[in-house]
Amino acid sequence: MYLSSLGRSCVSSLTRSARPSHLFLQGLRVPAVLQQSQTQARWSSHSPMGSPPTEPRKKVTIGKLRAMHRKGEPITMITAHDFPSAHVADAADIDVILVGDSLAMVALGMEDTSEIVVEEMLLHCRSVARATKSAFVVGDLPMGSYEAGPTQALQTAIRFVKEGRMQGVKLEGGKEMVPAIQKITTAGIPVLGHVGLTPQRQNMLGGFRVQGKTAASAMEVLDDALAVQKAGCFAVVLEAVPAEVAAIVTQKLSIPTIGIGAGNGCSGQVLVQIDMTGNSPPGRHLPKFVKKYGDVWSESLRAIKTYREEVKTRQYPAPEHTYPIAKEELEGFAEAVKGI
Ligand code: KIV
C-alpha cells in the first residue's frame, strides 16, 4: 500500500509526545516512523496536488462571466484533458476550463473526435474537475450523445454534471440544436454553443474548413449564433471564421463569443492547451491561429533524456535521493544475511 493512501488525517492528528510505536490503520500495523505520514504523503510521487502556489481565487461563476462581458473584459478559456493540465490552467487564473473532445485526438491519439464516447469523456471530466478549484468547468458532449433529440441531450448533459462534475456543457451546432439547448438549459445546466467550424461534422463540411467566407455563409454563422443565444446558451464558441465576420457577429449578440481562429474581435478566446504550450513533437501540423507560447515538448524531452543518461551512467540516484538507515540497523541486517 502506498503511504499516500494511508489514513492521513488520523495519523497527523497525533501529537509528537503521544505517539505510540505502532499504529493500526485500516487493519494494518504501521511502524511509528510512518507517523509522519502527512510529510510522507507529500513525499509520495502519487500525491497529486502539492501546495497551491498562491491563495485560491474566488470561484468563477456564470454571473462573473456575464459581468466580465458587460465590462468588456476578455474571457480566457483553455482546454484541459486531465488532472495536471487542469491544475496548471487553474493556477494560471484561466476563467473557463473546457474538457474539449479534442482530447480524443491530442490526448488519446484517435483519428478524429467522432471516436470518443461519453464514458471516456466522463473519466477525463472527473480528473479535470478534481484539479479545478476556481475556473468554471465545461465538458464537451461528444458526437452521438446529443443529436438524437432533446431528451438524449438532456440525459447526457445530466451525466456530465453528476458523474463528470462539470458545471456546464458544450455542444456543436446552430439552429437545429435549439430544442436540445432549450431542454438542457431549462433543467438548469449552462450550455456553451459552438458554431462556425464544427469539427464533429467535418465529414459533412468536407474537412476542417474555414466557415463564413462568403456573405451567405457569414450570414449562416450569424443566424446560428443568434439561434443558440435565443435558445439559452450563456456564450458561444466561434471556430475558424474570418476575424471581421466574428467581430460583427460578436456585436450582434448579447452573450459573449469565444473565438478560436476567429480573430481579436470576440469577447474571449480559447485554445487547445497541448497546442499552445508546444507539447507535441516538432513538425506536427498546427492550425494557423495557434500561437505557441511554450516548448513543453523540448523541455520534457531534455529532462527525460538527461534522466536516461544519468541512469545509464549511474549518476542517478545520488546519495541525496536515497533513504537513510541507522548504522547499527544496517550492521544487524548485514549480519543476519550472512548465512543466506
Ligand atoms: O474540443 C475542443 O477542444 C474544442 C475547442 C477547441 C473549442 O471544441
UniProtKB/TrEMBL annotation:
Gene3D superfamilies: Phosphoenolpyruvate-binding domains. Catalyzes the reversible reaction in which hydroxymethyl group from 5,10-methylenetetrahydrofolate is transferred onto alpha-ketoisovalerate to form ketopantoate. It is an enzyme of class 2 (transferase). One of its GO terms (cellular component) is mitochondrion. This is 3-methyl-2-oxobutanoate hydroxymethyltransferase. Pathway: Cofactor biosynthesis; (R)-pantothenate biosynthesis; (R)-pantoate from 3-methyl-2-oxobutanoate: step 1/2. Belongs to the PanB family. The keyword Transmembrane does not apply. GO terms for biological process: pantothenate biosynthetic process. Its EC number is 2.1.2.11. Residues 39-48 have a biased composition (Polar residues).
